[in-house]
User: Fold FPL domain-containing protein from Mucochytrium quahogii.
Amino acid sequence: WFNGGGSSSRDEVGDKYSLKNLHELYTTLSKNQELTASNQDVLVETVRAIAEVIVYGDQHAEQLFDYFCEKNMLPLFLGLIDQPNCETRLQVQVIQSVSILVQNIRSEISLYYTLSNNHVNRLIVHPFNFANEEVLGHYISFLKTLSLKLNSKTIQFFFNDHLNTFPLFEEAIKLFDHPEGMVRTAVRTITLNVFKVQDEMMCSFLMRGPCSQYIESVVRFIHRRCRRLHLLMLRASQVGQYYQRQGKDSMSEKQLGSLLLRLEVGLSEMQDHFLYLEDILNLQVEGIEDIVIDITMAYLFLPLLIASLLPQTRPFLELDDLTDKDFAEASLDKSSVTEIDNPSAGSLLSLFLLAHSCFAFSNPKMVNRIAETLFLPAPEESAAVRRRASSASSQKQANKSLPTAVEKKVEEDEGGDETDGASSLVGDDVEEQLFDSGNPIRDALLGFLENDDERHCLGATCIIYSLINNAALDPGVLERIGLAPRRQASSEEVVYPFGIVQSLIKLLMRDPPVCTLTQRATAKLVIELTFFEGNGNTFLSEAHSKILDEAYMGAVRRFETQLDSKITEISPERFIEMFEGEWMSLCEGPLVVESLMTKSQVLIPCSTNLVTEKKLLPLDSRQPFSVLENTRCVIRSFMILRLLWVTLHGKNNSQLANLGLSTSTRKLNQKIDLSRCHHLIRVTVLSPRNGATNIQPAYMVLGGGELILAEPEVSGVGKGITRSISPLHKIKFVEGYNDPLLMYIIVRSPKTKPIGWAHRGLKPLVASSQLSMASNGLSMSGPSSPRSPIAESKAAGGVDLDTTVAQGYPWEEESPTSSTRPNDDLRDIASWCITIRFDDHGSAYWAREQLSNAIDRTVESKIKRIRKLLVSNEKT
Assistant:
């Protein structure tokens, strides 16, 4: 039966891909060339089947493809879609079938035939209804498939040098600004595949107009996207101002969350735009590279992003080229934009977009051009910027004059001497230009380092950091503009960036301090500019060294104040926990400045009355809202300044590292010699397992600042295996209310790092211990009761164990106004609970006494070590 079935199946496959079947399909196709309402379903299946047979024939039976060519079937496909009554499903099938043919045909001869006679170009230029998403999706996929087949041999089938037409390129770029992201991405892929083709006549055609027109359209599209981002920032300001006028201190979490999400999506889109331009530049096609650079500078950087840095200009508020749709998507009215009190939003957005571009671009010409424009502008550009600074012209006027500048630049490049991008703007008077106050762009950019709004400080810091870490930037340019990091300096005579370093260190001196994200980025840049890790030498000037000392001691004083007050307010254990938590957070990895470019948090003010920011913005990117958050910020600020201080002074940081780490010298499942342990107590660990209670004999060991529970080893007397290790300063314990022999140990530990033999939640352990005593006949030393200890405690007016845990480790923090807010920064910390039972009252009393003393000694020791660290700093 199986063999018979297999034979029948093979016969069916053979019939399907036979010449006879193809002939029948052709007959059906040719007889139904005039479309009616009744034959289109048949034609859909016929076109699909023909494509399938032809692909099979190309790979297995040449006579099938020969028959396809002989009967000239491809024009018959196209004849169907040319008819006005052709339904969508048939149009989609024709597009899909031709795409399958192009994609799957392996033979060059077969492919060339399929592409010849202008049939494919005829399909490309057909006026499809792109309002239909299904048609558009298959069409753009078809164009993308064709572009992947482009090379120096196949270009002849797409580009007509006699008629100067290139349908594939021309039709694709019409969709470059389509609302659907998938379509825009496909257009980028198509254009990149076109630019890759090395064909002199095609390149000449593109250079005569289509390429520059397309690049200009793309850059103008990016320009509009930047302005839409600015509208979203204004919308956030408008909502905040509304709530302040209404006497409210918060906007809805949904409103702010939606704005943040849209800002983040917009920033991610900007990254895609910059990377697309970078992909074009990396093709290094002669002529196209210069077009991209010139147009990007002329239509994006100069009139919008760079001009926004100047205090007298606000190009983002020139709204003539924005559509009603742009305002609607930002939930704004055009008339209300000028009333919103946020004049610095444009400059803030420009700073981060400029930094974003410096991270994205790796083309030497582009990177050098940006750096030179920011710090060493060409005479023509300087004059233009000064004119704009003195009298802000409209965006339309700027756009009219800028193409002329581009044309002039191109003419100069063609007629003048060739120079590379690294030296085109550098003359003999470089040192004079460096500190020339007549350079408004440089003055404005560096002025943002001392801006009252720390977000502007962070943006300017990111620009400088992105430039000095861009490998494509000519080191000679870095030296000439005074930004060469010491690790890149070619000589010891490099100009010391005195003003920049001073502004950065003064930023770290602010009191109240800037948010810790700004501190980390600033400290990172100071190290880049003044420290050479290769030999450990620092080039910090003596004056700046003193300022750094002052900034660091300010952080020490703030930290000491918090230490003195908070160990009594929130308990020393909690302070130590926050100290270790902040250190571990800093040790997770270095700050990746580039990652900030797609974070909406950099565009939202650090200090605001919008309380919902607390839930949506991480603590390091905003000012603290409560007492505990302020403590954590002070701790982290101290650590950041400490790391910077020891690095630039060549000192050892082991003291802070040892204090911040809470690691054990022992490991789980490691053997331990119990005979050498002085504080050794025999206990029974009770834990729930599958609805029952697991009873595990164990030893409780105190020592080395840890509580260890060890399982006795059967094979050796006085030996054990560690099953649970808990730092003593993270422990609280509660005596069983109805049974003094019971002890509940609560350990604070991350959710991802469970404690051995411990469980999340206390109630299961209480119920388990009650069940264990009942099922195993264990006597209760306290008042007998069939109810659980929790139920008994409530009935007798005793203390609820859950309440005891909450008092020891509060999940909520109190602000100075006594209002409570959830501590979202500690959401990843959990209370891990262990239940143990002692053999007798003497052991229980002695264990509680020893454990309490050990915890106190450990906490006191850690606090003393922290104070010792501060005292040593003051002596230094």
